[in-house]
Specification:
Residues 217-238 are annotated as: Disordered. By secondary structure, this protein is an alpha+beta fold. It folds into two domains: 3-192, no CATH class; 199-238. The chain has helices at residues 6-9, 43-48, 102-106, 150-159, 172-187, 201-237; strands spanning 3-5, 19-21, 30-32, 36-42, 49-60, 65-75, 78-79, 82-90, 94-100, 122-132, 134-145, 167-169. Strands 1, 4, 6, 7, 8 and 10 form a six-stranded mixed β-sheet that branches. Strand 6 (65-75) and strand 7 (78-79) form a beta hairpin. The radius of gyration is 26 Å and the shape is flat. The termini are far apart. Residues 1-16 have low confidence and may be disordered.
């Protein structure tokens, strides 16, 4: 097993995973029982598999405790790369989110998984969460993958290899926004949901800048029209 610190990895995708107060898991994460996530992977799906977003809701023993977390991955029961680190000190229930690439968890020396090593068509990928100073209250996950063809989707469905609700065919920027930023902000009421708009710049500009500009021009035109009327009225009186 190769172990390294979670804190060393947390900035790789240009996103700092937050630890937030409260125990409400963001919408979209697939909830699992216990403290282990497990799913079956074929070579075809692995080639499309880009990463896993992990959400851990934990409680704190006796308050004011330092929370240490271990992520222990396995393939077919064989332990792979371990991650460990401190999440900090907490005195109430909290939630932690992390995005991890497959090779960081299951690859040998963080390389790709070699299916020939196991000589099996499907491999069981799993990871177990262990905490000291607290306990896992809720555990959820979602998988990010590249666009899959219809044949691969049919294989996954027919063989029930992976919970279909856990799979998202999204680019990194869209996935990050949905599961690592926006969902966290909304569900933890850190920002008013009504203030968030998922728009490209051109659409945002058209909606909020051009429309406002047009409205201001209409107001100015109305004011000018009133001034013209007043000027005409003054001329008639004279």
């Amino acid at each position: 097993m190769c172990a390294f610190s979670i804190l060393m990895y947390r900035y790789i995708e240009n996103f700092e995973p937050p630890v937030l107060p409260g125990g409400d898991m963001p919408e979209g994460f697939v909830l699992v029982e216990g403290s282990t996530i497990s799913f079956m992977v074929s070579q075809g799906f692995y080639d499309k598999f880009q990463g896993l977003a992990l959400c851990v809701v934990f409680d704190v023993e006796d308050g004011g405790k330092d929370i240490f977390l271990d992520i222990v991955p396995h393939i077919n029961g064989q332990q792979r790369n371990g991650l460990s680190g401190s999440l900090g000190s907490f005195d109430s229930d909290s939630m932690w989110i992390q995005y991890l690439k497959p090779n960081i968890l299951w690859g040998v020396l963080h390389g790709a998984v070699d299916f020939l090593e196991f000589d099996e068509e499907y491999l069981q990928f799993s990871l177990t969460i262990k905490l000291s100073g607290g306990s896992v209250e809720k555990l959820g996950y979602v998988l990010r993958c590249m666009q899959m063809d219809d044949n691969l989707k049919a294989v996954l469905k027919d063989n029930q290899l992976i919970d279909p609700a856990s799979i998202y065919e999204l680019e990194w920027s869209d996935f990050e926004c949905k599961f690592l930023k926006e969902a966290v902000l909304k569900d933890n009421q850190l920002i008013d949901p009504a203030s968030i708009y998922e728009l490209e710049w051109s659409d945002f500009e058209r909606k909020f800048l051009e429309e406002v500009g047009c409205q201001m021009e209409e107001v100015e035109a109305g004011d000018n029209s009133e001034e013209d009327k007043n000027d005409n009225s003054d001329s008639e009186i004279d």
